[in-house]
Amino acid sequence: MQLSTILKSLRPIWGKKLLKVEKINISYGIIQVVYDVDFSVEEGECVALLGSNGAGKTTILNTISGVVPLKSGSIIFQGLMCNRSSPSVRYESGIAQVPEGGKIFPFMTVQDNLIMGAACRDEAWKKRDETLEWIYKIFPKLRDRYNQEARLLSGGERQLLVVGRGLMARPRLLMIDEPSLGLAPKVLLEIYETLKVLRDEGMTILLSEQNVTQALKLASRGYVLENGQIILSGASVELLNSAHVKQAYLGL
User: Is the pTM of this model over 0.85?
Assistant: First the structure.
């Protein structure tokens, strides 16, 4: 089955606004780390959350997934507020997160790692064989190593594996956290070429990234976070030409 056919089957019928984050505040104990953050992601869009380490990007993704609790504000997905929903309910509804750092099950095979991505979502589990073939077409390196223990993969291959595992859930929203972390420049370019395939076929992606240049080449829009607050937002071209972005993130 073609990638575009699978993605069309996942697209919602309630309108273009797939995710809306409204005035969210997040704290770890008494320490507040995210302040009144607003943003949205439309169906079929790739949006980037940009900022240095510690800006709050990962915390926001973890809160959307339900792993980190929300202090105040609203998270609306598919037109429904999910503030109080458990991580498993959000996963079942179509939110999948690809964690930073290529986190894998090291002593399981590549294929078993992938299948784990479908294990907790009924729709994905029923169609796991079909989705697995789709992922092997996108990531032929994983097909070549399907029976190899995941711990033996290179850093770039591990990143492909965690993205593939996220796709096994057949998500409506794929959140990818710091895909460039720890990767050599050549490998990084390969990862982003793969992400471009997903973007061009209409996968809805929320990308958290320190590598501003690569992220804005991939995304149509971006939000710049500093100290837990959005200080800039706009089209990717506008952000790349921003004096602040050039000085703070591009060394220009």
Answer: yes
